[in-house]
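[Discussion] Sanity-checking designs against the backbone

I'm trying to build intuition for which residues belong where. Below is a structure token string of 340 positions. I'd appreciate it if someone posts a full sequence so I can compare it with mine line by line.
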């Protein structure tokens, strides 16, 4: 009850910020990001668009990957109209396609730009079961596997940039508190979802993918430490906010649900605050493998804290991105070794 009251009134936590803080508020401590190059996925609307706007305001060079280049160009136009000096590059990327991810990374690397910041923000909530071109359940493919491959392929560039500039690289995975709604074996559940061997629940599929975001950050943080890399990775819950994520299910019922929880909703600038805080605030320097809500460190769910599950998911993800597309989607899981 006390936590709910603090949330509703926007009481500041140890970081000095709380649920009512905005992305502009939390970046005031870093007014000049002119030396930073950032890739931000999912910037055509909502939280991602506001994150891009605020980082551009602070001077960061932005690379905006997008499935819809028209929508990304509109985002760039809005930002440059407000901040004429902003440097923004738009490149094509469909996170549900491993081929598209690889093509994006090749295009980016050909630009010979540094890379200080990677914000894995894009998200999909699929109301109907769908399978990606690589034979994976679509929500997982988009929200986790595409970002997993994107991060993997960009790591060397981030580590090189950190070494050359002495500026610590940061990776931010945008998850959700909904990750705590998933229970069960994540790998077995994904197998059943992909093979249509269980009733499809959009919420369960989304929760599974958001748990994967948390576990990805946890395992990657350990691996980066072992490598001695000057790169951190953390996970954030932006808060409850109505964005285009619900665009597939607009109508009376959706409107009623959001009306009933209106007091708990954040504005878009407030929802982008935790991402921006973890991405650039000096207080977060050196912090890695953590989970943040309302710009403060929090405990993830029990499942999200499991080192065993983080390792299992990592091995599954490596297996999936290393395979070429199979005609039979079930072949993805036939030879996986499920770790005890």
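Best answer:
Here's mine. Compare freely.
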């Amino acid at each position: 009850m006390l936590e709910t009251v603090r949330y509703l009134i926007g009481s500041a936590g140890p970081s000095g910020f709380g649920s009512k803080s905005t992305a502009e508020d939390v970046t005031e401590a870093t007014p000049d990001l002119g030396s930073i190059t950032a890739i931000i996925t999912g910037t055509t609307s909502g939280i991602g668009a506001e994150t891009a706007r605020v980082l551009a305001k602070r001077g960061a060079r932005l690379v905006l990957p997008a499935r819809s280049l028209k929508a990304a160009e509109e985002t760039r136009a809005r930002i440059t109209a407000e901040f004429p000096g902003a440097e923004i590059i738009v490149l094509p990327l469909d996170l549900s396609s491993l081929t598209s991810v690889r093509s994006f990374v090749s295009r980016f690397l050909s630009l010979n730009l540094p890379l200080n910041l990677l914000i894995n923000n894009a998200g999909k909530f699929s109301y109907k079961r769908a399978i990606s071109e690589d034979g994976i359940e679509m929500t997982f493919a988009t929200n986790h596997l595409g970002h997993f491959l994107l991060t993997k392929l960009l790591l060397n560039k981030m580590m090189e940039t950190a070494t050359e500039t002495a500026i610590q690289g940061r990776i931010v995975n945008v998850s959700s508190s909904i990750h705590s709604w998933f229970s069960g074996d994540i790998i077995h559940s994904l197998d059943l979802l992909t093979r249509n061997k269980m009733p499809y629940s959009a919420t369960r599929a989304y929760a599974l993918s958001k748990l994967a975001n948390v576990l990805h950050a946890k395992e990657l943080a350990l691996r980066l430490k072992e490598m001695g890399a000057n790169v951190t990775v953390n996970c954030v819950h932006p808060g409850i906010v109505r964005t285009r994520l619900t665009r597939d299910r607009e109508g009376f019922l959706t409107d009623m649900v959001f009306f009933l929880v209106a007091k708990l909703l954040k504005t878009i600038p407030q929802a982008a605050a935790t991402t921006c805080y973890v991405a650039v605030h000096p207080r977060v320097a050196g912090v890695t493998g953590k989970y943040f809500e309302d710009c403060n460190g929090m405990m993830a769910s029990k499942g999200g804290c499991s080192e065993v599950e983080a390792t299992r998911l990592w091995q599954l993800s490596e297996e999936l991105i290393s395979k070429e597309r199979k005609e039979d989607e079930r072949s993805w899981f036939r030879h996986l070794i499920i770790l005890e």
